[in-house]
């Protein structure tokens, strides 16, 4: 079946993309406005894009309340700072609460009974219950039509102690993080606990196997 994206309306293109590009990691973004009011919201158009410099990218669309920026984007534009937390299975329901389109003056962390923990490099707090958090400063804003791609430079990273396998070697016990990913539809998510191991093939092994085949 061919889907011609040049003829499809935006909503239909969106449905096809989110139904197939899965699972997507979730950026649980914590920001503050200039008055210090905290906002938290999840976004699944998100990923790590560079290690030198360390860059995370979050794509943010327009506010569902009407024309204009979502609170997250408005706060990032105003302060240049944000924290990206990752979502574990234990925090999934709290994350879902923060996805509600609450008024700007409402503190989503308080509504979801989450613990704000002071950051070390930026003013917005991180979510204490999140197993991983990245303190970021704004690197670049890239217009993408109806979305804005927020590129953030990672200044610091926090990982729960029990999920660090070897701090000296920077080894993380990834399965222990119990992270979830966004799937299709309005409410489907995926666990990351079930994995398959496919070792990379070296050029020497590829050449040997090809020659012996």
TrEMBL record:
Domain Flavin reductase like, residue spans: 19-173
UniProt keyword terms in alphabetical order: Flavoprotein, FMN
InterPro entries attached to this UniProt entry: Flavin_Rdtase-like_dom, Split_barrel_FMN-bd
Gene3D superfamilies: Electron Transport, Fmn-binding Protein, Chain A
PANTHER family registered for this protein in UniProt: FLAVIN REDUCTASE LIKE DOMAIN-CONTAINING PROTEIN, FLAVOPROTEIN OXYGENASE
The family this protein is said to belong to: Belongs to the flavoredoxin family.
Protein name per Swiss-Prot or TrEMBL: Flavin reductase family protein
Species of origin: Teichococcus aerophilus
């Amino acid at each position: 079946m061919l889907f011609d994206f040049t003829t499809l309306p935006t909503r239909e293109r969106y449905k096809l993309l989110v139904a197939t590009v899965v699972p997507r990691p979730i950026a649980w973004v914590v920001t503050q406005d200039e008055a210090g009011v905290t906002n938290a919201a999840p976004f699944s158009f998100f990923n790590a894009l560079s290690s030198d410099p360390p860059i995370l990218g979050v794509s943010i669309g327009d506010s569902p309340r009407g024309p204009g920026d979502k609170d997250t984007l408005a706060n990032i534009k105003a302060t240049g700072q944000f924290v990206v937390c990752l979502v574990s299975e234990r925090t999934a329901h709290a994350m879902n609460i923060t996805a509600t389109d609450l008024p700007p003056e409402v503190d989503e962390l308080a509504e979801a009974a989450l613990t704000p923990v002071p950051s070390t490099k930026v003013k917005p707090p991180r979510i204490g219950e999140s197993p991983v958090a990245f303190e970021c400063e704004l690197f670049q804003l890239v217009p993408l039509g109806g979305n804005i791609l927020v590129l953030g430079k990672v200044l610091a990273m926090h990982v729960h102690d029990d999920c660090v396998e070897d701090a000296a070697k920077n080894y993380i016990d990834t399965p222990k993080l119990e992270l979830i990913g966004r799937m299709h539809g309005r409410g489907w998510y995926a666990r990351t606990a079930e994995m398959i191991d496919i070792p990379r093939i070296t050029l020497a092994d590829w050449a040997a196997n090809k020659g012996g085949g």
